[in-house]
Specification:
Order of helices and strands: HHHHHHHHHHHHHHH
Number of helices: 15
Structural class: mainly alpha
Strand content: under 5%
Number of strands: 0
Oligomer: single chain
Largest sheet: none
Length: about 375
């Protein structure tokens, strides 16, 4: 019997590179469709137990159960936005103090520049006035861009909610399609991949929300003990931005520093920075591995690289979606023989014991649309 002919290495490399280029091109080209669809997929996975509860325990129709699940999600997001918005509104009361503090800081900076670089304050003001006039000339276009961006965000949120509803409503149809696409002998692998994606992504999202809540509460308490005026606002900002790996903590520290400088002066800046960074260190070394790390095992290099690539392709939404997408890809790679080397690349060096197929969980979650053969 003749041996199976294998493609040479350069052919495989060329095919991999072409496939990656095509995937990135499709991702950039289809951003408007793929970003809401991916968020909708994550939200639908998270809301699936709630939708099943309404459908099976309360005996609601599937459409009503899906709609109620989406409405509960909207209510939760609205409550969080209201809490943050109320804190920002109260911050606006300190606007006169903010302007005075900024004016004092600008004066100190001008004097430092004059002493170190021998540039007179009058000459510095000339540069500032010229820059201000140019900024005012382009102010109308900047405002227009902000309005367009805000309307685009609202439209994206509407699409996310619509996608979430339909993914919940047609979940059995989608799984039937995915099983039918592949050969019958591969149905066990398909069920296993779907079950692992559903289980791990839900655990990851819930773990991330729990971690965010703990960081927010601890940060609020720590800043309140230090006597920071807007401790709740800064704690919420730190917890929310903590979702973004590596980048979020620096953004939260910067915003907290600006708010503290505007309301409390420079005396407490170091305390706020030290507190936020200390909480981040504890979170990264204790909470994250304990709550989230066991759900999705991806090494730090791939995580950072994924966040950077996600931001370059999809902007800020890409930073949120990078890790879930990589986690889904790793689950698929680990269960397809030719793609297993990519699964090793995405994982860490610890031995990972693969859980058994979760066909039972699929059945429990309402996906018993076909009879999957048992794995031998």
């Amino acid at each position: 019997m003749a041996a199976t002919r294998q493609n040479p290495f350069y052919t495989k490399l060329a095919m991999v590179l072409i496939s990656l280029i095509a995937l990135f091109y499709i991702a950039v080209l289809g951003k408007t469709v793929l970003v809401p669809l991916t968020f909708g997929l994550l939200f639908s996975v998270m809301l699936l137990p709630l939708a099943n509860f309404f459908e099976r325990k309360v005996h609601f129709p599937r459409s009503l159960a899906s709609l109620l699940s989406v409405l509960i999600l909207v209510s939760s997001l609205a409550a969080l936005l209201y809490l943050v918005g109320s804190q920002i509104t109260s911050l606006a009361d300190d606007w006169p103090q903010f302007k005075q503090q900024v004016a004092t800081g600008v004066t100190d900076v001008q004097q430092w520049i004059s002493a170190k670089f021998h540039i007179r304050i009058k000459q510095q003001m000339t540069y500032v006035n010229n820059a201000t006039s140019k900024l005012l000339e382009t102010g109308s276009s900047v405002i227009g861009n902000v309005v367009v961006s805000f309307s685009s965000v609202l439209l994206t949120l509407v699409f996310i909610l619509i996608d979430t509803f339909f993914l919940l409503y047609y979940r059995r149809l989608i799984i039937r399609f995915l099983v039918a696409v592949f050969k019958e002998e591969n149905s066990v692998i398909v069920y296993d991949v779907l079950a692992q994606i559903q289980s791990r992504i839900r655990q990851y999202i819930l773990g991330l929300l729990l971690e965010m809540a703990i960081v927010s509460v601890v940060c609020c308490l720590a800043l309140w003990i230090l006597g920071i005026k807007y401790a709740i606002l800064l704690g919420l900002i730190t917890g929310l931005f903590n979702i973004i790996p590596y980048i979020g903590i620096f953004t939260a520290t910067l915003l907290s520093t600006l708010v503290t400088f505007a309301t409390a002066g420079a005396t407490k800046l170091l305390l706020v920075i030290a507190t936020i960074l200390g909480i981040h260190l504890i979170d990264s070394n204790v909470l994250l591995p304990l709550i989230v790390g066991s759900k999705v095992r991806i090494n730090a290099f791939i995580t950072v690289l994924g966040v950077i690539i996600g931001e370059s392709i999809w902007g800020i939404p890409g930073t949120f979606l990078a890790i879930p997408i990589i986690a889904i890809a790793k689950i698929v790679f680990d269960r397809i023989e030719p793609l297993k080397p990519w699964g090793y690349l995405f994982g860490d060096e610890r031995d990972e014991k693969e859980p058994p197929p979760l066909k039972e969980e699929i059945v429990e979650q309402g996906h018993d649309v076909t009879n999957a053969p048992e794995k031998k």
